[in-house]
Amino acid sequence: MNIIFNETTSIRVDKYLSTHFTELTRSYIQKLIKNGDILVNDKIVKVNYRLNSGDLIVLLDVEPKMLEVLEEDIPIEIVYEDDDMIIVNKSAGMVVHPAPGNYTGTLVNAIMFHCKDRLSSINGVIRPGIVHRIDKDTSGLLIICKTDRAHNSIAKQLKNHSAHRRYEALVYHNLKEDEGFIDAPIGRGEKDRKKMTINYKNGKEAKTYYKVLERLDNNKYTYVSLNLETGRTHQIRVHMASIGCPLIGDPLYGPKKSVFAATGQMLHAKEIGFIHPVTNEYMEFSVEAPKHFMRILNILKNRKQ
Predict the structure, then answer these.
(1) Residue 89 to residue 268: CA distance in whole angstroms
(2) Whether residue 84 lies in the annotated active site
């Protein structure tokens, strides 16, 4: 979505957008700006940037004029629930929150049916309760917050890297080292703004630890465990592709032609751990990878070594 600022009086970009889109909170708009989802004159700006007449504001992957998100009775797997949060095991193929092209059938639609109005409001009407995300074709654990107190606590833990997040993936090729650490900033691609890339000039800090679980099919593929220290968009997918080991089933960062009839990247959010925002107790949850992930893993395990 593009907006041309035509007013004669200069105003902060976050203030202008919060008055332009009254259904979105100012803190949510500031988060979008910090994440690079809002550009001014095709450049990333700070939240206190002052707009001038003629400035072009571009909102990427955001649909702020969608005022209503409908409740939908969609089955979801709830791993844990209390008065402050829900831990869900998201299925691959389900979008987390409504966006252009996916206004219904999302996890948010399902959660709103389950919780009604008992969800945190910090991320606005489009993303109620959503404190972090995983991609549509990634399966696994997500924390949904019911209260703003819980939301702020979990967001802080994610930001200061004290929350534990472990993924499992199936990747092409052989990782030379049994364990490794990828420290490379990630930002939007200059040519394709919907694609992320290693960007040392304008990217944000991104750190991924990996550990080989098993080498498969004469080292043609690898089963790998990954721990996130940061949580950038497409972080694991970009980082693994950057070292020559893209995820199986990921046409955006790997081979266009899928192997083993994979319908999406073979990535599963296996474990998540955090300090409960009210009880202050450490909690950790783990879920098994879905059938389509295990099908491909078993194919590779059964191939002659």
Answers:
(1) 10
(2) no
pLDDT tens per residue across all 305 residues of the chain: 788 888 878 899 998 888 777 557 788 888 889 888 899 998 899 999 999 988 999 888 665 444 467 899 999 999 999 999 999 999 999 999 877 667 789 999 999 999 988 888 776 666 788 999 999 999 999 999 999 999 999 999 998 999 999 999 999 999 989 999 999 999 888 777 668 999 998 788 999 999 999 999 999 999 999 999 998 989 999 999 999 999 999 999 999 998 999 989 999 999 999 999 999 999 999 999 999 999 999 999 998 65
Q: Which of 14, 55, 84, 135 is catalytic?
A: 135
Collapsing DSSP to helix, strand or coil, 252 comes out as coil
Residue 280: exposure state from Cβ atoms within 10 A (0-12, 13-18, ≥19): exposed
- φ, ψ (nearest 5 deg) of residue 237: -60, -45
CATH classification code of 165-269+292-302: 3.30.2350.10
Cβ-contact 145, 81 below 8 angstroms:
no
Structurally, at CATH architecture level, domain 77-160 sits in 2-Layer Sandwich (3.30)
Which sequence spans correspond to the domains of the chain? 2-59, 77-160, 165-269+292-302
- The model carries a pTM of 0.79
Six-digit token string for 103: 């206004």
Intrachain domains 77-160 and 165-269+292-302 with the same fold: yes
Query: How is residue 255 written in tokens?
Result: 């081979």
Domain 2-59 is in which class?
alpha beta
Q: Report angle CA 275, 281, 282 to the nearest 5 degrees.
A: 55
